[in-house]
Write a structure and sequence with these properties.
membrane, MetI-like_sf, MetI-like fold, cell membrane
Length: about 290
């Protein structure tokens, strides 16, 4: 008699269970993604609705007569200046934070222990609630003629984000072996070539991460911009708030300006994420 082939139902059940878990995991991920994207999607749809459609009952999900007037009108009534001022202040403060933060992070990483009190002290400056120093800054800026100026707001945002940049970069620099620096010094590289050709390329992921966070925090900051500026400097969060404070809100224009506010951050984060992955791959591949 020929032997009866043995069946393996446990293996089949196990494979079916794995497939079911993968399907459920993807379903949950898609559901969470839709949940988080719903506000952004509704903002996008509102930006293309004419004023009359905003108050339909029941409300229409998709715009019936789509229009681009909300973007042009929102840009004219204050969105354009808000975006421009935010770009100026956020980009310049981020650049200053990186220029000042990199040497300070190098000194912190190479001259002080990794778990010392100095690192925590620097980071604790970022933990201070903005409401604590804002009145003092207001009085100081009035005396120094920095109130309602780009320079004053750039100084404040640099002060706000510099501790975080120093702390993040110091952690990345600590991961760079000192042997790379010693080899460059043996080859006769001056200090500026050491920074530019050795330390900066190897710490590129940290620089990108610190730059992204500093840009996002400066772009979204509201309290300092509200208290320390007047009519000359109007950042985007302050411009959005003015729609509620000084006029009846036009939700279509708010949606258009909101999309314009979120769009640059999404684009920067997307391309910086690709650069981060590429930088990590190059660094790991070279070790």
């Amino acid at each position: 008699m020929s032997p009866i082939p043995a069946s393996h139902p446990p293996a089949d059940r196990a494979s079916f269970g794995e497939i079911l878990r993968e399907v459920l995991k993807h379903v949950v991920m898609v559901a969470l993604l839709l949940l988080f994207l719903c506000p952004l999607l509704w903002l996008l749809l509102t930006a293309f609705k004419p004023y009359a459609e905003l108050f339909n009952s029941p409300p229409s999900v998709l715009p019936v007569n789509g229009t681009l007037a909300n973007f042009t009108e929102g840009w004219t009534v204050g969105g354009g200046k808000g975006i421009g001022d935010s770009l100026i202040v956020a980009s310049l403060s981020t650049a200053i934070c990186l220029v000042l933060g990199f040497p300070a992070a190098y000194a912190l990483a190479r001259r002080f222990p990794p778990h010392g009190q100095l690192s925590f002290t620097i980071l604790s400056l970022r933990m201070m609630p903005p409401i604590v120093p804002v009145i003092g800054f207001y009085l100081l800026f009035q005396e120094l003629s920095l109130f309602d100026t780009y320079t004053g707001l750039i100084i404040i945002y640099t002060f706000m984000n510099l501790p975080l940049v120093i702390w993040l970069l110091s952690e990345f620099i600590r991961q760079i072996p000192k042997s790379y620096e010693e080899a460059a010094r043996i080859d006769g590289a001056p200090w500026y070539r050491l920074f530019w050709d050795v330390l900066l390329p190897l710490s590129a992921p940290g620089v990108l991460t610190a730059g992204i966070l500093s840009m996002i925090f400066a772009w979204n900051e509201f309290l300092f911009a509200l208290v320390l500026t007047g009519e000359n400097v109007i950042t985007l969060p302050k411009a959005l708030a003015s729609f509620f404070l000084f006029q009846q809100p036009n939700w279509g224009q708010l949606g258009a300006i909101g999309i314009a506010a979120v769009g640059p951050l999404l684009i920067i984060s997307y391309y910086m994420q690709r650069s981060l992955i590429r930088s990590f791959s190059i660094e790991l591949g070279g070790r």
